[in-house]
Amino acid sequence: MIRSELIQMIAEENPHLFQRDVERIVNTIFEEITEAMARGDRVELRGFGAFSVKGRDARTGRNPRTGEAVSVEEKHVPFFKTGKLLRDRLNGEG
Predict the structure, then answer these.
(1) What is the DSSP letter of 92?
(2) 8 Å CB contact between 58 and 72
(3) CA 84, CA 80: separation in Å to the nearest integer?
(4) Which residues make Cβ contacts (< 8 Å) with residue 6, sequence separation at least 6?
(5) Alpha-carbon gap, residue 11 to 5, rounded angstroms
(6) How far apart (Å, rounded) are the C-alpha atoms in residues 88 and 80?
(7) What number of other Cβ atoms are within 10 A of residue 52's Cβ?
(8) Which candidate, 83, 77, 9, 79, places its Cα nearest to that of 45?
(9) GO biological process: any one (predicted)?
(10) Residue 94 scores a pLDDT above 80
(11) Each residue of 3-62: pLDDT tens digit?
């Protein structure tokens, strides 16, 4: 599912809301999650999962074509851990 499909689905399930309002709501939610993670905060959505940021230390990597050693800088990457309810539902237990 992509963002536009999510917006369309929510708008269809809530005919009392204008699609532009649903789009604004969905975009605001995603922006808030992104901003919180950019600050280094953890975002938990009960029953769904938790988004966090993990740091990766600088290291020496290898160019796969040449085998040459390459310096890889320190970086931060998003991490998602599923919640129990989502995990159970995916495994047919819910």
Answers:
(1) T
(2) yes
(3) 13
(4) 26
(5) 10
(6) 16
(7) 16
(8) 83
(9) regulation of translation
(10) no
(11) 999 999 999 999 999 999 999 999 999 999 999 999 999 999 999 999 999 999 999 999
Record the tokens describing residue 74, joined without a space.
């320190």
Q: What is the pLDDT of residue 2?
A: 96
Q: Using the structure block, give the residue that is written with the tokens 């999510």.
A: 6
Q: Report the amino acid identity of residue 23.
A: E
Tokens read off for 93: 């237990």
**Strands 59-62, 69-72: pairing kind:** antiparallel
Number of H-type helices and E-type strands within the chain = 3, 5
> CA 31 to CA 37: how far, in whole Å?
10
| Distance in angstroms (rounded) separating the CA atoms of residues 12 and 84 | 28
pTM passes above 0.85: no
Give the pLDDT score at 93: 80
